[in-house]
């Protein structure tokens, strides 16, 4: 398949119901940080973006949401795919992006480089969709905050060592700051800016 | 409302672009508990007073597997609740219920069900005036600034004036709360009796204001504290007698006039809760006169 045809294929098969299902999973996961949701949608974005991250893109993005892509994603057929399937344009600057997509293995920029929102409008911030290897097997992290009864635990593989520090800085800016949607395979986990992450002693 | 032309509309009435816009606002609202996210409210086939904000939120989250309950003043059978329920049956072919525990989504005006909500449930409030500071400051730019700077002194002054005038805080509906120690939020015109139910609820709570174009949220297990003072702590309404029909105590009661000679009784405002208790053999002192009362 050529790059051209790739851009026009691989959207939702049943857009109304698939987008609703993906959204509900995201809503549940954002409301209950640490909860792992399944994304069973049938989209096939151009590589290297994975189907689950592509489904998140088609669920939330459109011509009102500019998207920042990593250099590898920007160089792939993804910009054309997003333009055709979502009507979304690519943001030149991280500061102007409503969403950002970071594929597995790419460098995760410091969250402070993205739109943080303002103190009056903290919602005007970037939501980052970050693909990682797995939610288990890595350094154990404890999650507390709204949406969590006592404590949740995750052990993500594929986030940089600096992640807890990036996140602590993000948390300190509340109500400003970014929100994260982590994707591992066809599973998803959300970290709203309210979540407090502490590194557990192994 | 006119439902005859709705068959040709998209699932749940809203177009997909509008749903995406509302869904994005909902995710931001969950991430910033108690903060009012602006959204581009759409015209709905019902007047604003009918809860178009709540209807839009419900329409944006609703799926084919949901079970919807709609209440107004605690009752499932008022005109407003019946119309909204019929609307979603028509445009989304969704299953409906009056039973709190069977519902996955509960859209409400004026009450929170008596039965404790659980983790699988989402409560959607219809909100007329989302800004708790509006009666102190009419300008949106100023109230935004007050929220931004966490400047809630005026609100406390207003509540304290109440105490000076009445000896207690007179506000009984839409009693302001502070969410997760940060944003002061209007809980919608529910009685303050229901405020404690919002605190660390297992259910997700979403608020939609159609005319004012705002969406806000309280995630599960989030602190919701009613504003008060050390010497005048927050208190909910209490009722002298239990429900006349089911005998329930510690529930919110409505006054019902029985006759033109001043006869009256107090019954559960939450009709499902009352019927459920009656079906399980609970009896109040007027239980057998229910038909006569109606
Ligand atoms: Zn009763």
Would you kindly provide a written description of the structure presented here, covering whatever features stand out?
The complex is a heterodimer of chains A (202) and B (294). Chain A is α/β, with parallel strands linked by helices. Chain A has a single domain (3-136, 159-196), classed as Rossmann fold, CATH 3.40.50.11310. Chain A has six helices and nine strands; from the N terminus they run ααβαβααββββαβββ. Chain A has helices spanning 3-8, 15-31, 51-60, 71-75, 78-86, 163-172, and strands spanning 37-38, 67-69, 99-102, 127-131, 141-144, 152-154, 179-184, 187-191, 196-199. In chain A, strand 7 (179-184) and strand 8 form a beta hairpin. The mean pLDDT of chain A is 95. The two termini of chain B are 28 Å apart. In chain B, 27% of the residues lie in helices and 17% in strands. Chain B contains eight helices and twelve strands. Chain B has helices at residues 16-31, 52-61, 79-92, 140-148, 153-166, 195-198, 271-279, 290-293, and strands at residues 37-38, 67-72, 95-96, 105-109, 122-126, 177-179, 183-185, 204-209, 214-218, 224-226, 253-257, 264-268. With 294 residues, chain B is α/β, with parallel strands linked by helices. A seven-stranded mixed β-sheet of chain B has the order 1-9-8-5-4-2-3. A three-stranded antiparallel β-sheet of chain B has the order 7-6-10. The longest helix of chain B has 16 residues, at 16-31. Chains A and B meet through helix 2 of A and helix 1, strand 1 and helix 4 of B. Zinc ion is lined by residues 243, 245-246, 248, 267-268, 274, 277 of chain B.
